[in-house]
Amino acid sequence: MISGKIQSFKHFSILADIAPDIGYTRDFSYCLKITNLEKYPNYLLFVKIGSENPGIPTKPYKLIQAGDCVSLIGYRPIATIAAISKDRVQANDLENSEAGTILKNTNLQTALIQGKPIIEHPTVLPMTYTASVVEDSFQIQSIDPNGLQLSLVARSSPVLPKLILNWIIFPLVGVGILVWFIRRRKKQKGDK
Question: Contact at 8 Å (CB) between 74 and 49?
């Protein structure tokens, strides 16, 4: 009998028996970073991680620290970034937990300035990505009472080592094996 606990598989998306297309992988974890947080010292930014599946509950608003890369873990996770003026938040509105600092005051949660776009965890990436963690960097374009606007600045793309492996080393090894077979065959014909 299965216990009532829900098992969490860190860094895995369960996508039934559907294999990714050839040349793509799902073997990576994903995190997001806000690169210009220090330019907005009067605001606190929070991330709320949910799922594309509406039946999966969302996690509480977690405080984003400057320089931190926030991991998106779970089944098809999506993240919403929200901001609030620092002068509206008291120390007792926040709670430290093993997940980080969370906003526990539900009244303040309704006052958060919601950000756009909603950030989605990529489901597959080209196999040329060699890192086990894909990091997207976002910048704050504007914060005002009507909204928080973010833009994607860069996605980490450590593809060079794998390209060297795929396009230089593997072909050289293949040519070396081919030359070895040809020489061996010529030697065998010469011995007869």
Answer: yes
Q: How far apart are CA 109 and CA 107, in angstroms?
A: 5
Could you tell me the two tokens for 160? 């060079």
Strand partners, 70: 32
- Please tell me the number of Cα atoms within 13 Å of 48 on its side-chain side: 21
Per DSSP, the three-state class of 114 is strand
42-52 pLDDT, tens digit per residue, is 999 999 988 88
Across the strands, what pairs with 46?
Answer: 63, 82
CA-CA distance, 12 to 15, in Å (whole number)? 9
Q: Establish whether the linkage from the previous residue to 117 is cis, with ω within 30° of 0.
A: yes
Please give the full DSSP string across 53-94, using - where no structure is assigned: STTSPPPPPEEPPTT--EEE-SSSEEEEEEEEEGGG--GGGE
pLDDT, tens digit, for every residue of 77-100?
Answer: 889 899 999 888 888 888 888 777
